[in-house]
């Protein structure tokens, strides 16, 4: 009798997506997976990556590739940063604490979210790698925002990432139909009162608010959610240190360009004056390679980390990040580039745009 072949575990992040959908309650899955409107932008975030082809360079003697880089002076083992995501406690009991451990084990950094279920101090205590802090400014609550900035400084966060593409929340219709709310007993970790007592209506930020935030702290300031080169130029003029080219994972305004489509024009406008990152749609190591070749310093990984958490807590999130890291390293080697610096040097010459 032939011995049984052990089952093959998840081989890519899409396998983890299927596991997460099976294991999460319907409301939690809808909250994580939903996009705005008709989900045109949500789909385009993937389709745009698929239209870009990699043109490998041969006979360069590259057997393995070095994925190390730096972001705002902080060394990371791979240019895959963990995006800020709300309510990670829906995916596993430890929530953001598990994510922090997974990021550190992978040699990268986590961007802790304002709307985390765990307090920032707990996330920082669990972290074995560097942290950045993502900030929402809520309507009429500047004092709250300043408290969050001070908490980020006290927790040792190395940058402040301000989300600027949410003057109001985009309409996510599946979640609205399900009337999704946090489960009983689950709160927001970074607020002083119960979530039910707090208005989470975002502020409609203006450039003067960027000046105010810049005046509050010596931490590097990153704006997340820019798609227009004109906004990127203004951001640098206001003393911003980094930009995340992002459409909020397709969750805000439907019908905007995929982030990877908007990236080249912003890179050209910046001409090296600040670091540029990209999120929305990263599902493969080849996606990260394409973004790096188009000028991103690093990419932010969002939903796949949640899928890993839902499948197996911190270990699942670590394996998801590890899969993406290994895919990126293999793609770099097969493309004939031995380091992240070489990807940047060859740039768009490594690609054919569809």
Radius of gyration, in angstroms, nearest whole number: 20 Å
What is the helix/strand order?
HHHEEEEHEHEHEHHEHEHEHEHHE
**Class of secondary structure makeup:** alpha/beta
Low-confidence stretches: none
Going by CATH, the architecture would be Alpha-Beta Barrel
The CATH class name reads: Alpha Beta
Quantity of strands, as a count: 12
Helical content, roughly?
40-55%
Q: How would you sum up the major sheet? A: 8 strands, parallel
β-strand percent reads: 5-15%
Report the principal-axis shape: globular
**CATH H-tier superfamily:** Aldolase class I
CATH topology: TIM Barrel
Q: Would you tell me the overall average pLDDT?
A: 95
**Count of separate structural domains:** 1
Question: Spatial order of the strands in the main sheet?
Answer: 4-11-10-9-8-7-6-5
Q: Would you mind describing this structure in some detail?
A:
There is one protein chain. The longest helix has 33 residues, at 303-335. The strands form 3 sheets. An 8-stranded parallel β-sheet has the order 4-11-10-9-8-7-6-5. A two-stranded antiparallel ribbon has the order 1-12. It is of the alpha/beta class and 354 residues long. It has helices spanning 13-23, 26-33, 40-51, 96-106, 120-126, 142-154, 173-178, 207-216, 229-237, 259-270, 285-293, 303-335, 340-346, and strands spanning 53-54, 69-71, 74-76, 80-82, 110-112, 131-135, 160-163, 221-226, 242-245, 275-278, 298-301, 351-352. It is built from 13 helices and 12 strands. Strand 5, helix 5 and strand 6 form a beta-alpha-beta unit.
